[in-house]
Write a structure and sequence with these properties.
There is one protein chain. This protein is α+β, with helices and mostly antiparallel strands. The chain has three domains: about 80 residues, 3-Layer(aba) Sandwich (Rossmann fold); about 60 residues, Dna Ligase, domain 1 (2-Layer Sandwich), CATH 3.30.1490; about 100 residues, 2-Layer Sandwich (D-amino Acid Aminotransferase, Chain A, domain 1), CATH 3.30.470. The chain has nine helices and 13 strands. The chain has a five-stranded antiparallel β-sheet with strand order 11-10-9-12-13, with helices on both faces. Strands 2-1-3-4 form a four-stranded parallel β-sheet, with helices on both faces. The protein is globular.
Length: about 280
């Protein structure tokens, strides 16, 4: 089977997927989307299925749409990438499927953002709708801090920063969970441990392999289904009173550190899954 990898930046994961595709007896086709243009009137490419690994959200969505409309199954789908790439959309999908999440409000002006924060109670976390690796996420301890954060964002050119995603600050036990869903399976997950309130491994959080209980597996599958399914990284908080809360779902998730600490071949799991997708 010819399996394409759609990418814009080559990382460890993309290289390891090439290895897994070859070891499982398939042919990898590398599609570096910034190296060529896409012609809507062209013939469908000679590939059976594609794995979308673009770091850029806009490139991921655009390329997924293009290849899907050419009749090529793409993992993750354009729909899943659109939902998971937008924190507002993700939150709405999770809540509509009765999945527990941190208290979150949306606002379109500085004044209504302040009112939202006052309703939640300080401290609050302000997030951009689109972004990863913990970038541009800020914690506001009080109204003065929040006003400074919002004022700064409202002068940024990107209109996305003028939609204010205001979330309660969850007092985590120095860690959170990144759990992986691959189709209907939840094969592994990690704790991301840090003394800092942001636990992203990109910001220095330590990956520690975790055992999965039935509640985590069920919650992860529900969250994955809510956003369209596929290969997903589900971020879960442990709240001391409410238990597990799903914070975000990642549509192009990195897993190098997970492989390192858990010792499982995630790339082969992904390849086996996309082969089954192609057969449907």
């Amino acid at each position: 089977m010819k399996i394409a990898i759609i990418y814009d930046v080559i990382r460890w994961e993309e290289k390891d997927l090439v290895r897994a595709i070859r070891e499982l007896g398939h042919t990898p086709i590398l599609l570096h989307v910034t190296s060529f243009f896409l012609d809507p009137n062209s013939k469908p490419p000679e590939i059976d299925v594609a794995i979308n690994r673009c770091v850029s959200h806009s490139r991921a969505v655009a390329s997924a749409i293009f290849y899907e409309e050419k009749g090529i199954p793409v993992v993750n789908s354009a729909y899943t990438l659109i939902v998971t790439g937008d924190k507002l959309y993700t939150t709405m999908k999770l809540i509509s499927h009765n999945i527990p999440t941190p208290r979150t409000l949306f606002a379109f002006t500085k004044d209504t953002a302040i009112k939202a924060a006052e309703k939640i109670g300080y401290p609050v976390v302000v997030k951009p709708l689109i972004g990863s690796w913990g970038r541009l996420i800020a914690k506001a301890y009080d109204r003065d801090t929040l006003e400074s954060i919002i004022e700064h964002r409202e002068y940024m050119q990107n209109p996305q920063y003028k939609i204010h995603y205001i979330q309660e600050y969850v007092n985590k036990p120095g860690r959170d969970l990144r759990i992986f869903a691959i189709g209907n399976e939840v094969p592994l997950g990690i704790y991301r441990v840090s003394q800092y309130w942001k636990t992203n491994t990109a910001l220095g959080g330590k990956a520690v392999c975790t055992e999965l209980n039935d509640e985590i597996v069920e919650l992860t599958l529900k969250a994955a289904k809510a956003v369209g399914g596929g290969v997903l990284g589900v971020d879960i908080f442990e709240d001391p009173k409410r238990g597990y809360l799903v914070d975000e779902v990642n549509g192009v998730t990195e897993y190098r550190n997970t492989v390192r600490v858990c010792g499982k071949d995630v790339s082969k799991m992904i390849v086996n899954y996309v082969v089954e997708v192609a057969k449907k």
